[in-house]
Each structure stands twice: as structure tokens, then as C-alpha cells.
Protein 1
Amino acid sequence: MELPPLTHNYFSSSPKKELFYRRTFYFTIILSSLVLYFFWQPLRNTSFTYSLVSIGVGNPTIRIFFRFVTILGSEGFFLILFSIIYWSINKSLGFWGLLLMPLSIFVTSEIPKDILKLPRPDVSGVTVTTYTFPSGHASGAASVWGYLAVRLKKRWFWICSMIIIALVALSRTMLGYHFLGDVLGGLITGTAFLAMFLWVGTILFENNWQEKIPHSLIMFASLAIPLAMSYIPATYAPSLMGYVAGAGFGFLLQKEKLPFLTHGTCKQHFVRTIIGTTIILGMIPGLNLVLPQGVHMLTFVQYALTTFWTTYLAPLLFLKLHLTYRL
């Protein structure tokens, strides 16, 4: 699957449509920020949150639906999604998604949460020990699904992405995990981070940065920078930055050492997905059994191994098992 190159036309190849969509985007972000600022107290009103939660409590079907929807904004779902994309659809899209997901959640949610330390709604049956503002599911959904829409540039996918983002955000309140202001804050920070990510990525792509920096230096930085960032005081810093380190180092090593292609038969794609996702699903709980918990460096390494499996070890295994074409 070939994607159009990353350019400054994020929404449309038509200059007029691009200008219109950009203005709409900026207007929406500014308006949402103003609403959050001026209606901060009502948006964090406990009774309103209870009224939404009561809808799900009174209707199990609605609650089950939103429990499914909220998965579409979780880091575990994104890890599986981008791994499958990396193995069978497009390595570039999968790799940058594996970087964007943890970076977005870390910068737009985990750091602000540990700075502001705002409590979650006190809802019976909902026990979450972390802080609440802004919502990581909402910010992650906005950045990741928005990124996929920008890269695919399909109108139907834009519509689907907007619906998923809205439903994920709503699900966090309906299930009692967040106030409405938390998810609005997450949507704002997530889309703002996506805009920055795309802007920086476009500049780097246009300047062909990877050809101007020694490969060994890039590989060193792919480990050293996330490791340094993992010591920023945030609850999930070691795990999220571990994802980044493993994905980056594995991708660079794969490009250098492995002639891995995403092409293959339907059977090969199916077997790759089964083997690859089974290992991912078992890796973190399996490592929990053998590694001491609560040790910063070991947590970092544990999660780095997960994405290193996706970007390097799994392709290596697929080549050994003849589950992919060779260059």
C-alpha cells in the first residue's frame, strides 16, 4: 500500500479546500479552548457526570457499547493496530503510528495530569488511581485517528475517524472515568499535538534529514532520548518512552539488516497477524512474571521489548518462517 508523501496539504490536495479545512480546524480548536476556559466549573460538574453514567447503568446495552468503543482509544489497541499495519500494509505508516501513539499520550495527558493532579469523578464501581485531566483516551484518539485520516486522505475515513474520536471521548464520561471537561481538554491537546507532529514531520521529510545525520548517531538517539524522557516525573513515563525507544531502534535496525517487505499472500498476512499479536498480548504479562516490578529501568526495557518485537524481531521471525517476500 503506497501512501502519498507527507506534505503541508494535510486535509486536501485542493488549495481552496485545504485553506477552508485549515481555517475550520483552527477555529474549532480556539472555540473549544474558550469553552473549556469559560465553562470550566460546569464541565467538571459531578452531578452532570452522574447523569451520563446513570444512562449506562440503567441500560446494559449502552454500557457494553461504550466499553467496546473506549477500547478504540486505548494504547493496547493502537499497539496492535499499528503492528499489523507495519507487518502487512505499510511500514512507514505503522512505524510513525507507533511513535505518535506513546508520544501523544505522554505529552498531552500524562505530564499535565501529574502537574495539575485533579481528581477523577467519584463514581461507584470505578476505581482508577491516576489523575483525570486531560483524558489520555481522548487525546490519543484525536491524535492517532486524526493522523491516520491525514495520511490516508480518504473522505470516508475522515468521517469514520471523527465519529470514532467523538464516541471515544463520550465513552470516558459515560463510563464514569472522566468529567466532560477532561475529555474536551484531551481532544484539544491531542489535536494540537497532532498538528505539531505533522508540521515537524513534514519539515524533516522535505529536508531529507535522515540522509544528513550519521546512521549510528540516529540509532544512539533513538535509545538515549526516550530513556532521558522516561525520567520526566509522570506516572507512565517509563512504559510510554519504552514504546518509543523499542519502535525507533527496531525500525532503524530492520532497515539496515533485514530485507523485510509487507507484501505477501492472504495466508501469510493472516499467519503474521496471529503470531505477531499473540506474542504482543503475552509479552507484557509474561515479562511481569519474571521481572521485578516498580524498577524504572526494567519497566522501560520491558515496554521497549514490546515494540522492538513489532519492528525488528517479528519481521526477523517472519523471514525465517518464509512468511514474507524477500528483496
Note: The radius of gyration is 20 Å.
Protein 2
Amino acid sequence: MKWLRALLFSICCVLSACEGGHTHTQEKPPTPESIKTPRFKVYQTQNIWTLLLLDTRTGRLWQAQFSINKQSGEWVVPVQTTVLDSNGENGRFSLSPTGNMWTFILIDSENGALWHCQFGMSDERFCKPIDLAPKDVAG
């Protein structure tokens, strides 16, 4: 019987050592630093059937169209497929709506660059850089 107690004691010691001294406590809530920023973000537009999908790492942008009517169909088309930064981190790029329901501003949070991005139901989809150079407005 002593050998059984010794064996159980040894097993308990080994298991305790394998746990690395961790105690079983409730996990702490995640800190902002530990929450991973998502790579892709969906933006609502004023058109209830249209969403914009942004790759927050590279700046690529797509228009997603959906419908509850089977005849209308659902599709995704590119608005901006140029990779603006291949070494960026998730969350680097974001979109801001404008007063025009078909236009958003793409923002690079690292260097402040801006792009005029337009989407719509026709093939007139684009993102073009906004020139941030100071202009002489004095007349």
C-alpha cells in the first residue's frame, strides 16, 4: 500500500511541475493591446443594398452588392485594387463618408495621405489620390 501512495504522490508531483506553477484562476479581461485589429472592415453606405469592404492593411477596397430579390443578384466588384502599402499593419487604412452617398475618403493613418474613392452602380468606380500640397488661395 505504501508503494501505491508513493506512486500517486510522484504522479501528483510530476503533474504539478508540468503545470509550471500556474494556479487555476479566472482569466483577466483582454487589454486593448491584446485585442487584434481586424484586417478587413465592412462599411455601410447610404445605399441599403451596398457595403464597402476595406483591407485595412493594404488599402484595397471592394463594393459588395446584396439583395433579397433573387433576380437582382449579389456581387462584389473592385473599387481600388492597388496595394498602397504591403508592409503596413492592420488598421492602417480607414474610410470616412462624405456628403455624397457615392463617395468616401480613404485615409492612411500612418502618413495622412488621402484618396477620393467613388463607387456606384456603373463602371465609374475609382480611388484617386488627393493632392495635399499647399495651394495659394490668395487672389
Note: Residues 2-18 form the longest helix (17 residues).
Protein 3
Amino acid sequence: MNLLDLISGSTLPLVLIGSEKGAGKTVTLNRLRAEARQAGLTAFGLMTAGWDGESRDHLTGKEKPRVTAYPDDLVLTAANCLTSAEARFELLWSDSISTPMGRMVLGRCKRSGYVELVAPPSGRQMAEAVARMQTEGVTRTLIDGAADRRTHIGITEDVEVGLVFRPLEKESIEAFTRRVSRTTELFGLDLATDAPPVKPHPHQIALHTQGGWRLLNASTFESDFATHQGETAWIGGPLTERLLQALPKRGVTHIVVRDPSRFFISETLVKRSTKRGLYFHLQHRPRLRFVAARCDGGTNRSLPPFDTLDSLRNALPGVPCFDPWLLDPIDRATHGRTR
């Protein structure tokens, strides 16, 4: 397995999700795209779930990694970012809805250079953009995702996910490995089989009662829990801690969530709830493609990269693990044992 395999082995959109802001999503995207370019692969789609590629963060002022577009890449961003980019583009499409940075546009890169990526206002528009890029024949769409895993996986049912982690302050290799492992366990949950006839909207819950399926409002679910009792609940929106506390009061033992991005509770709480007799299932299970670890995470947040990667690979058999900052992040034999 090498980095080129991670990006060339599939045509599905690849969403990069970070454990926090500054975890290394954009660096991971750049590294994968650079490996593909070195191998002669072209025409990738580039987009973001936020705002990426600027030289400094617009909120914190901290320096950020740039995003480079290469010839034949397709870029989704706001019009002002496309026209001010160092790269040069052919305009392919423009949205009718304006944003503070101008209309959302899709451009084909004609000359390499930096470009800022800005996300469309809604998940629906992100899904439409992914479909449009695929229609234009991109090799693969790379999405610089959210600063946590809670959003933008579910823009389309067929996606792959790369998780990007950075050590916490004074976190040990063992603790870091446990934290990463608990997150990845959500991608291994069983798929639900007993589906309601109508899928709940984001503000609804489908409850399986003795009289059949009932659609209930999630916002009032806790206050009127005595009205209906059921064993299985399909959650249309996020599973929050407050909702998790209310579900057992209805007799619910099986909770179905759209995908791992909809767990707005900690992995530790999921594990505790499972021990108390709750069962969690997924409507859709995106493929976990890899785990990237930013081992050099800054002051009091750094871990020895090769020992850390060894620990992750032992804990996550079958999941490629690498550090995108290393010269050869897959094959340690060229580096020696520790660093």
C-alpha cells in the first residue's frame, strides 16, 4: 500500500475529516494530490466544506497551508476567489444564488497555481456540486471536510472517508491510539435492516411502536415521551446527548443513525451506552479509506511518528495509517525505527 493507491484505487468522492481545526486535512489533501500528479494523474475535483487555501485563517489570523490546482482540475469555489486566484480557470458553471464572496462557480484549471476554496451554503448544494464534477469526468473529487467528523460525510451515500488526527496536549501514544480507535469503531457499526416505510426528515424521528412506524418531532420528543413507546428509533438528524437520554424512556433499545457523521456524542458515551444495553446501527456506512496522523502536532502535542504509526496499525488492522508530513509516510524501512 502506498499513497497513490489511496487516491487512485477508487472513483468515489473522498472526504477528509479532521479531529479538530489544524489537524492537517489540507496538508493531507495536498500530499495525496501531489502523489497523484507525480504519477501523471490529472483532472481531480477540489472542494471544501468550509474555507480553505487562504494564506492566513480569516478568523484566527494563523498561517494556513495553500491549495494548489493543476491543469484540468475542477474547482468549486466562490466567484471572487476564482477571479483572484493565482491559478487560471475556464468557467464551466455559475450558480444563481449569490454568497458574500459572490456566486458559487465551477472552473477548470488552465494554469497551475494557488486557489482559495469556499463551500456552498448547504449540503444539498455540495451534493449537486459533486454530481456535476462527476458529470464533467473528474478522476476523483477530493473534499477538504469539517474540523470534526460530524458534518458533510452524508452529502451523498457513496463516499470514502479519510480521518485526520492530531495529538492532544501531553497525550501518550497509547491514549492517542485509543482515541483514534474509538472514532473508527463507528464505521464498523452494523447496518440497520428493519427500515421505516418513510425515512425521517432531519427534524424527525421514526419510532417503531406496536401499531407500526410513527414519525415524531425530534424537538418535542423528550417532553411527550409517554405518548408512544417503541423499541427501534431512526434518527433523521444528529444524535445528541439530550436525545440519547430521552430514547430509553420510550423503551428504545435500538438506535439507527444516518452515518458516523451524525453522532453528536463522544465515542466514549457510545461505548458506555452500549454497555447499558443500547444498540447502535447505521443507515449508511461510508468506507473508511485511511487514517492520517499529524504526529508533529506542536508544543506538547508531538509524538514519535514511527512508533505512533506502529501502534495505530496494530490497533487498526486493514486501515492504512500514515503521517502526511513524512517524506515516505508508508514505508518506514527507509527511515529507521524511531524519529
Note: Helices lie at 3-8, 25-38, 79-83, 123-135, 173-185, 241-246, 267-275, 305-315.
Protein 4
Amino acid sequence: MKILILGYSNIVQRRVLPALKKLGAFDQIEIASRKEVPGKVFKDYDTALKDSDAEIVYISMINSEHAKWCEKALKLGKHVIVDKPAFIEAGFAEKMVQLAREKNLCLSEALVYEYHSQVLKIKEISGNPTRITAEFSIPPINPEDFRYSSSKGGGSLLDQGPYAVSLGRIFFGSSPTEIIGRILSKNNVETAFSVLMTYPGGKSVVGTFGFDTQYRNTASIFGMDNTIKIDRIFSTTPDHRPHISVNSDVIELDAEDSFENFFKMIIEKLKQKSFDGLYKNILDDAKALHNLIESCKEKI
């Protein structure tokens, strides 16, 4: 297989390319970038899509451009993976999924944390959890970063909202019945938010997310069976050995690369030509993210 990467973002350099090379499943990795990049590089995205014979396109651009290039790639018959957030509007997600479904193409959001063994282990031992609390916050980012621009799809809701709204889908297996969100700080765009999401059966997710504090990346998943705590759940580096606290015990897992696991999953889906689960994840998360954003707007 061959893969074409549109955009030479920080995440592509730090995580995507190393994972693809380590996996060794791709005969060729091509990059389209307006930056100077070593190796085979297309300087123009349209030319790259037209001239490349790669079966898969990985889109890693500013958030506001995801839908445009996703649509172009799908129309050319290419499977597509999109950085999170896949789309800045739920309507875009519906349109892109419909197009992918019509052409029987893979369409997936690269929300890779759920494919790490620590998440799979928590799901295995958590029994029937009813509550989740989560915190994911980082120090202020570079003022020139696109995430401070609303026109480019910036803000903490789009940047970290996908983590928040996916928790219930992953651990409860259901969509929220109600979402209450509040913006906590602003700097051109919202830089932090809090959220309460309720689910069928009295279940809930409560969290704070943003880029206006010191680093914090943790979650607790609990109910009548167990109380589980995990650090670095949302962004686990390939060399990190996770420690899961279960009541008074600690389970240590081996280090692994969640991006590598994600691409293994994609390869298996391509072999099976089975994409319905990926479509559903995109649509469910896009709807929940839309409702979170709308709830926050009510109190701006």
C-alpha cells in the first residue's frame, strides 16, 4: 500500500511518520507540503491528489481545510484519514460520510487514544462504569498557532472537544442525552471549557479541558465494580509505560504506540472492507461536539 500525507504538521513529524515507518506496511509514503520537506514531496495539494497513486490520504492541515480536501480525495476514490477534529461542523461530517459510504471508502478520524492497550484494558476491567471524570489541559501554545484563530477552526472546543465527547462512546457505548458546556477562558478564541454530559442509565462524564494551565492529562472511570485512575490517557507517548490504578492495586502495561495501533486497525478495516463502525464514530462524535459547542454559545 501507499499513503499520501497532505500537510507536514507537528503531529505528522512527531507521531505519524515514525509510526508509519515502524509499521512497515506501506511501500511508499508521500508528502504534500508547502514547507521544505526532505524526500519525495508535492508542493501543491491538488497536484498531489491528481498525480499520486496512493490508495490512502492522511489529511493534517488547519481544521477549517479538512472538509475541502477530504471531499476531493474521496471523489478521486481514495481512502481518507483526517486529524481530529475531522470536521468543524456536523454537517460536513454527514456529507463526507455519505460520500465515503457511496464509494465504499474508508473515512476515519485519527482520534488514536482509544486504540492504546491502556484504554482496552480499562474497558476490560471496568465492569459497568457509570461515572467518568477527566482533565486535559496544557500550557498556553505559540501565539501564532492556528488554534488561536476562529477562522481557521481554532479554539479548545474543536481542539480538545473530540477527547471529551468520545469518552462516553468508548466507555459507555452510548451517546449523551444532554450536554452542558461552559467556556472558562478566552483569548481571541475559547482557551478552556468545562462540560457535563449525561447518558442513559444515570451515567455521566464531567471534565475540564483547555490550553491555559500547567499540564494535566488524567481520567477516572468508576462505578459499583471498580474505581480506575489513569494518567496520560489522551496523549500517551510511545515510550511511556502506563500505570492503571484499580482500587488499591496498580497494573503496569508495556509501552506502545497508539498511532501504530491505529494504523494497524485501518489496515485491517481495508482488508475487510468494513467501514460502518468508523462512519458511526465520526457521526456520533461530530453530533456530540456540535451540541457541546452550541451549549457553550448559550453562555458566552
Note: The two ends are 47 Å apart (CA to CA).
